[in-house]
């Protein structure tokens, strides 16, 4: 086989992957899942590699909650600092 | 922090060994997979964790690694999904969620599309898993609002929640299971609602709203959720509950009574008095379509009204069916929502179910508009029928500002106009009026009504098939057709009908209708117009062809001109010559057979014999109605008989005009003839009998000849004018008019009427004059009649003079002869008796001359009387002519002024302009009426 073919296959694969991510992204918008494209693609690749989707969902939720808390703390700290100043 | 609880011992390889999706793997792929998972987890943690500003990188790193550990632990601990690995199930779950949380099926539809697209892409193996993952995440978002609103929880809530259970629906297993609910969702979700035409506009709006909604940031969404939650908190319980009302609603919308919403009468809906005002107002809005539907369904079932009324009912019934379709969809939605209701939620969970009374109001809004419009139309249609009905609906579709109303009316119009176009087709292709309910804009006239109408129009005579059989009803012409167009359509049908019945050519009509018949329908006005134009041209061409070829219309017109308008000079001259002696006798002594015999003679003796027998057959001579004291000249008339189809052009009225012109011309001709014969007599007499010694008599003769010459000039000019300036020029115009391209029968009739009018007007027969506002009809007619009468009296006087002159001549000759005879006798006497002549002649002469003297005296007495009479008549004639010239000089018509100039070319007359004039003697009035 000439070396061009795998290259072409790869291109096709990449295009298909992009398409898949597009579709999933749209579905996630429909479902209000609040995922951006990069996070989504990471999650898809994780699931492709056999990660349990339910567990992954829980993890994502947990991580988001953490981020929220961190944000709130940061905000409070910022406010305190402003008051102190 | 939860990350702190993470266990540090992880057994990743054990985790991967248990996975059952990828059965055969070697170590290399397993390690690469593990690597990829680890990388993925790291990246995920990095994306999701927020870096706090001012925190040192070591702490951040620490946090990230902690988080990653936690993630690994969680992922490892739960292997195998809770649901069976089935792509369809994940998609079902999502679809169900979408339908429940969204008002419209739009999102579910979009998801279905995306899903099918997804299935077609082979790039990914774990589609179901990703979908399930997304489903879980989405679910997580749904759960957030109650958590957020928890600080605002009111103490009332718990009590109410327990109360809600009382009203909660028993969950029927039929609607409870997600498997079975799927066909329902599919039935009405994407296509079912799409089919309802009235809702298209609204759906678009909703879609836009959604797009806006999806674009809003999460923060805003949270605030909306907060509001919803607040609303749910402050919700007041109503009786009967909204769920019960919702269950009753489909019945109400179909116009059926239900437990909570009974119809108290045909046009009123009873609302439960226990409801709060806002709910009542919502129910009012929902009651409108219900009541309108009831009204319309009774309207649809009523049977009166013509074809168009029935088609309107059919169209309305169609619209009602689609309304019922909407109601059915609504009912399905309501049932499904009620079955999926979670009683523990606030407001009986109705806020989540997606179907509320308010939603129903929104969904039925456009349908209500349609129903409203239809009930308006059905109200108005009671007093209208046929074309007016179409105009009414067309008015909505063309001049209503709301595009939705316009589109709706347009759709109705397609159905409603069907019988109209059917009639139209029958009319323009078959020439038949199939209109049992008198709805078409052409109507067949009642023969009695025609007679009544004609009394008013003063057209008289028998009804004309062409003019009176059908009538165009201006107010029945629907506004989808212009007046011009309607006129054309009317003409086409009338012509076809005329061809069939008037001209007896139904075969052609049938062939034509077979060849040309087309299906007409509303909407394509341009094509329709071209078709109708085509039909118009074909029909008109055929009709003219028939008229010209089969019924010899043009030949008849020519014959009328030749015989009735005295165009054929030799024929008329011969006829007059042969009839003159006959016509001098009283009218009672005229016999038809002599007249027809003379007519035949005149035809044989002139060029008329070469005319076609078709024409000659129609020529007839007869006497008009006699009145006492008339002589043959007054009553004689030529007639040209016109029969069935052609009398459409040469109408009864036209015939009378022709006769009028003929009588006038015939009188002129007669005067001319009389004057010519007298002139001839005088001329021949002047060389013989009229030569006398008497200067007085010679002078009288000279004057008489002068006046005669004047009269002959007058008559000559008048005849020339009428025949050449009037008839020939009008004929020329008629010829150009009727041989024009695309000439229709109506044009023909019009041209012919114009032709006759021109002749009668310019021919001094119909000119009307006004003096001081009074209409003095036929002034020229009266004047000319008077002048002609004067001429005839003058001729009689001249004849009297002539006979006097002849008798004078004979007397003189007799006297001479007597003297000669006496001389001879004397000679004889002398010879016999031999006495001296002078002695014997005197007493004898005296004796003999006594009677002669007496006769001489009487003749001598007669001469001055004759002379006086001639002078009087001559003077009268002159003054009349001056008057006529005065009138002619002020005519607006150039040709008539020209006549005045020709008659008075050397200014021998002084035209008199008279301001007031009454009709002259009785006799002339009589003659004019007879003419």
UniProtKB/TrEMBL annotation, chain A:
A GO CC term assigned to this protein in UniProt: spindle
Biological process terms in GO annotation: gamma-tubulin complex localization; microtubule nucleation by interphase microtubule organizing center; mitotic spindle assembly
Keyword Cytoplasm recorded: yes
Coiled coil: none
Biased composition (Polar residues): 73-85
Compartments where located: Cytoplasm, Cytoskeleton, Microtubule organizing center, Spindle pole body
Function noted in UniProt: Required for gamma-tubulin complex recruitment to the microtubule organizing center (MTOC).
Subunit relationships: Part of the gamma-tubulin complex.
Descriptive protein name: Mitotic-spindle organizing protein 1
Species of the source: Cudoniella acicularis
TrEMBL record, chain B:
GO molecular function annotation: gamma-tubulin binding; microtubule minus-end binding
Protein name: Spindle pole body component
Organism: Cudoniella acicularis
One GO term describing the cellular component: mitotic spindle pole body
Keyword Ribosomal protein among record annotations: no
Region feature Disordered, mapped onto this chain: 150-214, 815-855
Subcellular location: Cytoplasm, Cytoskeleton
Residue ranges with Basic and acidic residues bias: 192-212, 815-827
Classification via InterPro entries: GCP, GCP_C, GCP_C_sf, GCP_N
């Amino acid at each position: 086989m000439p070396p061009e073919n795998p290259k072409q296959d790869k291109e096709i694969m990449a295009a298909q992957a992009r398409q898949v991510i597009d579709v999933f992204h749209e579905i996630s918008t429909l479902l209000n899942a609040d995922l951006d494209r990069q996070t989504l693609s990471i999650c898809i690749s994780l699931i492709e590699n056999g990660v349990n989707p339910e567990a992954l969902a829980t993890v994502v939720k947990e991580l988001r909650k953490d981020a929220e808390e961190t944000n709130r703390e940061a905000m409070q700290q910022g406010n305190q600092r402003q008051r102190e100043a | 922090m939860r990350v702190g609880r993470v266990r540090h011992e992880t057994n990743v390889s054990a985790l991967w060994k248990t996975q059952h999706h990828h059965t055969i793997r070697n170590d290399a792929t397993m390690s690469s997979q593990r690597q990829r998972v680890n990388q993925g987890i790291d990246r995920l943690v990095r994306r999701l964790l927020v870096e706090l500003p001012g925190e040192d990188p070591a702490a951040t790193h620490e946090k990230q690694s902690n988080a990653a550990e936690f993630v690994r632990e969680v992922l490892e601990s739960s292997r195998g999904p809770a649901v069976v690995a089935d792509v369809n199930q994940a998609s079902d779950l999502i679809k169900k969620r979408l339908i429940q949380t969204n008002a419209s099926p739009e999102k579910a539809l979009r998801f279905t599309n995306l899903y099918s697209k997804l299935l077609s892409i082979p790039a990914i193996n774990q589609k179901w898993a990703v979908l399930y993952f997304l489903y879980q995440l989405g679910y997580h978002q749904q759960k957030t609002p109650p958590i957020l609103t928890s600080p605002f929880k009111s103490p009332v809530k718990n009590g109410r929640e327990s109360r809600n259970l009382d009203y909660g629906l028993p969950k029927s297993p039929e609607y409870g299971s997600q498997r079975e609910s799927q066909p329902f969702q599919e039935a009405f979700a994407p296509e079912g609602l799409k089919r309802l035409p009235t809702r298209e506009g609204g759906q678009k709006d909703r879609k836009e709203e959604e797009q806006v909604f999806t674009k809003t940031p999460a923060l805003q969404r949270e605030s909306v959720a907060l509001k919803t939650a607040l609303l749910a908190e402050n919700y007041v319980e109503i009786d009967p509950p909204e769920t019960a009302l919702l269950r009753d609603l489909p019945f109400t919308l179909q116009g059926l009574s239900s437990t909570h919403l009974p119809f108290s009468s045909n046009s009123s809906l009873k609302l439960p008095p226990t409801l709060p005002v806002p709910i009542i107002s919502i129910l009012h809005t929902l009651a409108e379509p219900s009541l309108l539907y009831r009204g319309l369904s009774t309207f649809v079932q009523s049977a009166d009204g013509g074809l168009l009324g029935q088609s309107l009912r059919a169209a309305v019934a169609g619209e009602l069916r689609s309304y019922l379709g909407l109601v059915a969809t609504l009912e399905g939605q309501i049932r499904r929502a009620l079955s999926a209701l979670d009683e523990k939620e606030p407001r009986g969970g109705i806020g989540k179910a997606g179907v509320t009374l308010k939603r129903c109001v929104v969904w039925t809004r456009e349908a209500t508009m349609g129903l409203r419009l239809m009930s308006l139309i059905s109200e108005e249609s009671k007093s209208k029928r046929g074309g007016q009905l179409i105009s009414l609906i067309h008015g909505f579709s063309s001049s209503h500002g709301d595009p939705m109303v316009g589109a709706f009316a347009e759709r109705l119009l397609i159905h409603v106009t069907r019988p109209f176009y059917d009639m139209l087709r029958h009319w323009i292709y078959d020439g038949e009026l199939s209109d049992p309910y008198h709805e078409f804009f052409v109507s067949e006239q009642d023969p009695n009504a025609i007679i009544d109408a004609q009394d008013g129009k003063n057209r008289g005579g028998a009804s004309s098939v062409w003019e009176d059989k059908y009538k165009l009803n201006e107010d029945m012409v629907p506004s989808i057709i212009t007046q011009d167009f309607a006129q054309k359509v009317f003409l086409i049908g009338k012509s076809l009908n005329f061809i069939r019945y008037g001209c007896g050519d139904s075969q052609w009509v049938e062939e034509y209708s077979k060849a040309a018949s087309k299906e007409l329908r509303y909407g394509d006005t341009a094509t329709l117009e071209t078709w109708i134009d085509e039909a118009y041209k074909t029909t008109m061409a055929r009709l003219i062809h028939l008229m010209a070829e089969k019924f010899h219309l043009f030949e008849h017109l020519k014959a009328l001109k030749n015989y009735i308008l005295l165009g054929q000079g030799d024929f008329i001259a011969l006829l007059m010559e042969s009839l003159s002696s006959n016509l001098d006798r009283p009218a009672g002594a005229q016999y038809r057979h002599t007249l027809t015999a003379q007519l035949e003679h005149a035809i044989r003796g002139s060029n008329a014999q070469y005319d076609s027998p078709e024409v000659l057959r129609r020529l007839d001579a007869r006497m008009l109605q006699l009145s006492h004291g008339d002589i043959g000249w007054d009553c004689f008339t030529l007639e040209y008989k016109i029969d069935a189809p052609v009398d459409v052009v040469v109408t009864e009225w036209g015939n009378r005009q022709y006769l009028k012109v003929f009588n006038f011309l015939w009188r002129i001709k007669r005067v001319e003839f009389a004057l010519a014969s007298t002139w001839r007599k005088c001329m021949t007499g002047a060389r013989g009998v009229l030569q006398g010694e008497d200067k007085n008599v010679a002078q009288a003769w000279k004057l008489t000849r002068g006046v005669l010459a004047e009269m002959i000039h007058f008559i000559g000019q008048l005849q020339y004018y009428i025949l050449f300036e009037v008839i020939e020029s009008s004929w020329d115009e008629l010829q150009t008019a009727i041989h024009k391209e695309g000439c229709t029968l109506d044009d023909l009739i019009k041209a012919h009427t114009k032709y006759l009018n021109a002749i009668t007007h310019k021919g001094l027969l119909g000119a009307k004059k006004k003096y001081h506002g009074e209409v003095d009809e036929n002034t020229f007619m009266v004047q000319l009649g008077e002048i002609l009468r004067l001429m005839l009296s003058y001729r009689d006087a001249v004849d009297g003079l002539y006979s006097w002159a002849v008798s004078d001549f004979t007397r003189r000759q007799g006297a001479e002869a007597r003297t000669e005879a006496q001389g001879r006798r004397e000679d004889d006497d002398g010879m016999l008796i031999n006495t001296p002549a002078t002695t014997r002649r005197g007493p004898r002469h005296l004796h003999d001359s006594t009677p002669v003297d007496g006769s001489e005296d009487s003749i001598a007495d007669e001469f001055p009387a004759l002379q006086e009479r001639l002078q009087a008549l001559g003077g009268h004639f002159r003054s009349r002519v001056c008057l006529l010239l005065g009138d002619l000089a002020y005519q607006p018509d150039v040709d008539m002024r020209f006549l005045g100039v020709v008659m008075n070319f050397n200014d021998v007359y002084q035209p008199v302009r008279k301001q007031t004039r009454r009709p002259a003697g009785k006799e002339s009035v009589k003659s004019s009426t007879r003419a």
